[in-house]
Amino acid sequence: MCDPATRRTPVIIVTGYAASGKTTLVNLLLGDRHASAMRVGVIAHRQVEEYGIAPHPIHGREAGVEYDEVFDFGSGCLCCSPSGEMTRLLGSWAERLHQGHLHLDLLLIKAAPLASPLVFARCIAHASGRVAEAFHLASIVAVVSPRHALRHLAAGSPEW
């Protein structure tokens, strides 16, 4: 929940390989929000390979959850750059929070399968201005599918 002392919204970054269960986890968290009456925002990071492809649905879209998508087209400026798409989106949401047009108890960022969660963490942890006033990094959750874990962790895996 939003930290009452600082009024900053916690951010949880959900990361993991393709088909590991990231969307399933986000949907479970969104389903649980009804019982607690939490106001949740979701930013889904998608990569250029996914452009034009309908991803597994995040159910919060129908349930009144604040939802946005950002695309990484391989330019390297998604989060690292001060003018990157994620930085602009967080700035826009922070401004809406500041003006009272948006209320969030939690922000979930669902990273694309090949995205480094540290890039997103840096975007939040080293933010300035309204973004720093509005959000704080609470956690990075790495989802691992038991079915694929041994293949990903194998010494000869391309991920290593």
Describe the protein in words.
The chain has five helices and five strands. Strands 3-2-4-1-5 form a five-stranded parallel beta sheet, with helices on both faces. By secondary structure, the chain is an alpha/beta fold. Helix content is 33%, strand content 23%. The mean pLDDT is 79.
Helix content: 25-40%
Major sheet description: 5 strands, parallel
Mean pLDDT: 79
Outline: globular
Rg of Cα set: 16 Å
**What fraction strand?**
15-25%
Number of helices: 5
What is the N-to-C order of secondary-structure elements (H for helix, E for strand)? EHEEHEHHEH
Question: Could you give the distance between the termini?
Answer: 36 Å
* Overall number of strands: 5
Going by helix content, strand content and strand pairing, the class is: alpha/beta
Instruction: Give unreliable regions as ranges.
Output: none
What's the SSE blueprint?
Blueprint: E1 9-16, H1 22-36, E2 40-47, E3 66-72, H2 85-99, E4 106-110, H3 117-125, H4 129-134, E5 135-143, H5 146-153
Parallel strand pairs: 1-4, 1-5, 2-3, 2-4
Name a few traits of the molecule:
single chain, 160 residues, alpha/beta, 5-stranded parallel beta sheet, 5 helices, 5 strands, globular
